[in-house]
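subagent[fold] <- orchestrator: predict structure for attached chain, return tokens only, no commentary.
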Amino acid sequence: MKKVIASLLSVAMIAAMAGCNQPAQPTGSASSETKSGESKPAETTTAGGETTTTETTVKESYGEGPVHINMWSFTNEVPNMAKKYISLNPDFGKKYTIDVTIIATTNGTYQPALDAALKNGEVDLYAAEAAFVLKYAQGDAAQFAAAYKDLGIDVDKDLKDAEIAQYTVDIGTRPSDKALVALGYQATGGAMIYRASIAKEVFGSDEAATVEKEVGAGSGNYDTFWKAAEKLKAKGYPIVSGDGDVWHMVENSSSSGWIVDGKLNIAPERQAFFDISKQLLDKGWSNETQDWTPAWYADMKGVSQEGKDNKPAFCFFGPAWLINYVMVGNSGGEKAGEGTYGDWRVCKAPAGFFWGGTWVLGSKSAAENADKKAGVAELIRWITLDATDKGLQYMWANGTFNGEGGTKDCVASGKVMATADGKLDFLGGQNMFPAFIAANANATGKNMTQYDETINSLFREQVNQYAHGQKSVDDAVKTFKSNVADKLGVES
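subagent[fold] -> orchestrator:
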């Protein structure tokens, strides 16, 4: 995702807190209307990163209809959407029963279980997050996914009417037949989130247009951004907290992915991250923090790390979920004037990128089942393509999914965001949606592979060793290639 929905998180999300790839995303709260609930102990986390023990496998049912739809997910976010739909459309619940299986990805348990169930025809609708969605939409398990058109969804019309962010469409399109098989509901295009007070002090204005000019927003390179870093340093401010704050922008704006023609490929933009990481350290442009650690959160509060006398970082890079579910809770306040709450703004980043998200798929077996097909299509369309004020995305954007005054989030529909109220007190009353509409338009999903989570972790490990003087670039690259070959069998 305080107004955060309680969560079950995947291990990929938890891995992100250790500096790997994907975000911690909150999910919908558990419901008292659940008919059944099988569970086993497991690990979950809150949006702030604290880890507790709860469930790893949950089975629930919603509705009372004779037609049973089997839904699989790694959190209860998508299942809670189905529950909401039934509450809004009682006749749907009289016709269908949604049998939910939630398996947290702790210890990598979700994907193997889902794979087996898909092979056995036991899944009708399922969720996949950014860390592994390509496996199900384009990769090893793509054959199990139904084309949205085969479910009866008017894809071309709905995509156009809703103005769905293109990167989510690209990711959800199966290459073999060019069929759309998955879409997200939450948009995760990344913007620059900066301190207004620091911008005023250093650049003379906290207006987004001024800051965008100072950092080279939309330029596709970092030349102007590093000039801004020098200006900030002259006033004693690091431009970012740590290299992880730049990594996702570098990674997801690269010209090619990790695997090209079956071989490991290091895009020039990613190769450049070796020098980016090192200069952030050597030139004092960062506070040398690791993302998802107490020191990183301290920079969100604008306080010095324990035992250090550093000044607060100027900016972070990320989607709206980073604001809502990480920065708000770590700002040190709940209203303007407390901690850094109210002192943040958003603007376009130097390069387009996205970070995280969840995609929804229907199975071929469901598309071939006359009883289930229409119900699966109805749910998927309401979640991913309905741009009316009755759709999931309208409620998600306006913070009304769980009633008035809830968390406002970015959605895949540009049409919805253009009309929604994106003003946040945390951002000093700024409407965040214009910046994130631009971010979604500038993001690309064409440089992804189904192995990104693993390869990103191996790469950042070697970059870190180089930046701290433990290896040369050549040695770090050599080790990286060797580790990828050992782990995935992919040669360079």
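orchestrator: received. Logging for downstream: The chain is about 40% helix and 15% strand. Residues 452-467 form the longest helix (16 residues).
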